[in-house]
Write a structure and sequence with these properties.
Blueprint (H helix, E strand, L loop, with lengths): L1 H61 L1 H14 L4 H87 L1 H4 L12 H8 L12 H14 L6 H12 L20 H7 L14 H14 L6 H8 L3 H18 L9
Helix pairs in contact: 1-2, 1-3, 2-3, 3-11, 6-7, 6-9, 7-11, 9-10
Keywords: Coiled coil
InterPro entries: Lysozyme-like_dom_sf, MltB-like, SLT_2
Protein name: Transglycosylase SLT domain-containing protein
C-alpha cells in the first residue's frame, strides 16, 4: 500500500514536470515564430537594399550616374560654382549610402538568423525534455498499475488462505476447548452462560469496530499494534458477523467462552454490565486478556493463550500483517 502511495506521488511530480516542459516548449515555439517573422522582414529589407545597390551598379555601368558625375567634375575643373561640387558629393554619397544600408541590412539579417538558430536549438532541447518527461510519466503510470495489481493479488491470496485455513481446521474448531481459554465442555459452558450477561445489541458498522480496536489497544498499552486485535476480531467472528454460539459454546464478537468471560469480562462502555455480546465490552476484554498473557512483548504466547492452536496464531498474524500492509504502516511489524 505504501508503495502504491509512493508511486502515486511520483506520478503527480512527473505530471507537473511534463506540464512545465510543455509550457517551456510552447514559449520557445512562440519566440521562434516571432524570430521567423523578423527574418522574413529583414530578408525583404536586404533584398530591397540589394536591389537598390545593384540598380546603382547597373546605372554606373551604363554610364548614367558616371556621366552626371563626370560633368560635375569637369565643371569644377573649369571653375564653376561651389554648388556643382555639392552635387558631386551628393552623387557619391548616394552610392555610399546605398552600400551601407545594404551592409546594415545584411548584418541585422545575420544576427536575427543566429538568434533563430539558437532559439531552434533551445526549442529542440525543450521538446526533447518534454518527450523524456512523457516517457518517464508513462513508465511511472505502468509501475503504479503493476503495484496496484500486485496489491489486489496479495489481498485475494490472503483471503483465499483464510478460507483454506478455516476449511482445513473446521474439525478442530468444532472440538471443545479450541475457543479461548480452557473449556469444561459445551454443557458446562452453557450452564455458565446463564450466569453472565449475554444480551444481543444493535449491530455496529465496520468503521465502529475499527474505532473500538484502536481505542482498546491504546487503553491497554499496544496502540500501534491494534492490527492484531482487529485480526482476532476478523478470525473469531468476521467483526461481529458470526456471534455464536460456537460448537464449544463461545459467544460474541470476540468469541469468549462463558467461563473465561466470567473471570475476565470487562464493562468497556461503563453501562454497569459486562455484556459478552457487546463489542464495546468484548473488544476491551480481548485486549486485556492478550496483555494478561504476554502482549505486546510476546504475541505468539498471548495469541496461543487466546486459542490453543499454532494454526490460529499464524492465521491471526497473517491477517494482522495484511491490515498493516494495506494501511502502509512501516512503524510496526511485520507480524509474520
Amino acid at each position: 500500500m505504501q508503495r502504491v502511495v509512493f508511486l502515486g506521488e511520483e506520478l503527480r511530480e512527473a505530471q507537473a514536470r511534463l506540464e512545465a516542459a510543455q509550457s517551456r516548449a510552447g514559449e520557445l515555439e512562440s519566440e521562434a515564430r516571432e524570430l521567423r517573422r523578423l527574418v522574413r522582414e529583414r530578408e525583404s529589407a536586404v533584398a530591397e537594399r540589394r536591389s537598390e545597390y545593384e540598380e546603382s551598379v547597373r546605372a554606373a555601368y551604363r554610364g548614367e550616374g558616371v556621366g552626371e558625375l563626370v560633368g560635375i567634375l569637369e565643371s569644377l575643373a573649369g571653375g564653376e560654382s561651389f554648388l556643382s561640387g555639392v552635387r558631386a558629393v551628393r552623387v557619391l554619397g548616394h552610392r555610399q549610402s546605398s552600400m551601407e544600408r545594404y551592409r546594415e541590412s545584411r548584418v541585422r539579417l545575420e544576427n536575427t538568423a543566429r538568434q533563430l538558430e539558437q532559439k531552434g536549438e533551445a526549442y529542440e532541447r525543450a521538446a526533447g525534455e518534454e518527450r523524456r518527461q512523457q516517457r518517464e510519466l508513462l513508465q511511472k503510470k505502468r509501475r503504479l498499475e503493476r503495484a496496484i495489481s500486485r496489491l489486489g493479488e496479495d489481498v485475494a491470496r490472503i483471503d483465499a488462505e483464510l478460507v483454506r485455513l478455516r476449511d482445513e481446521h473446521r474439525e478442530l474448531l468444532s472440538r471443545p476447548g479450541v475457543s479461548m481459554g480452557s473449556s469444561g465442555g459445551l454443557a458446562y459452558e452453557l450452564s455458565v452462560a446463564d450466569k453472565i450477561v449475554a444480551e444481543p445489541v444493535e449491530e455496529l458498522e465496520l468503521i465502529e469496530y475499527q474505532r473500538l480496536y484502536r481505542e482498546a489497544a491504546e487503553e491497554y498499552g499496544f496502540g500501534e499494534d491494534w492490527y492484531i486485535l482487529a485480526a482476532v476480531g476478523k478470525v473469531e467472528s468476521n467483526h461481529g458477523q458470526n456471534m455464536g454460539p460456537s460448537s464449544a459454546g463461545a459467544l460474541g464478537p470476540m468469541q469468549f467462552l462463558p467461563s473465561t468471560w466470567e473471570a475476565h469480562g470487562v464493562d468497556g462502555n461503563g453501562d454497569g454490565w459486562a455484556n459478552i455480546m457487546d463489542p464495546e465490552d468484548a473488544i476491551p476484554a480481548a485486549a486485556a486478556y492478550l496483555v494478561l498473557n504476554g502482549a505486546p512483548g510476546d504475541w505468539y504466547r498471548a495469541l496461543f493463550a487466546y486459542n490453543h492452536a499454532d494454526w490460529y496464531v499464524m492465521q491471526v498474524l497473517a491477517v494482522a500483517e495484511a491490515y498493516r500492509q494495506r494501511a502502509g504502516d512501516e512503524d510496526v511489524g511485520p507480524y509474520t
